[in-house]
Amino acid sequence: MNTDWIKVFVAALFEVFWVIGLKHADDFWTWAGTVIAIIISFYGMIMAGRKLPVGTVYAVFVGLGTAGTVISEILFFGEPFKISKILLILLLLAGVIGLKLVTNDNVQEGADS
Known about the structure:
This protein has one domain (3-102). Helices cover 78% and strands 0% of the residues. It is built from four helices and no strands. α1 (3-24) runs antiparallel to α2 (28-49) and α3 (54-77) runs antiparallel to α4.
């Protein structure tokens, strides 16, 4: 795995933070943290998208962010655990992993645009 994919994973992690922040922020510091997480998240995704296929980067970013947010809501905020929800998250993650596996990591900037 190269550093561009690591940027996507870190960006997705910060996506989880800012999505949770949008729901739970209630004072200046939590809103400030949410804004910082948004900036880091989108910066990482944009930087990775300069070297990797943008569609794949976005799909992986959103898929991991969605899975992370749902799992965080279940673990930390009392969202009801439903096996159907977990199975659908696993299906989503299988698609994200599949996209990652079939994507050429050596894409040159501007190639085949």
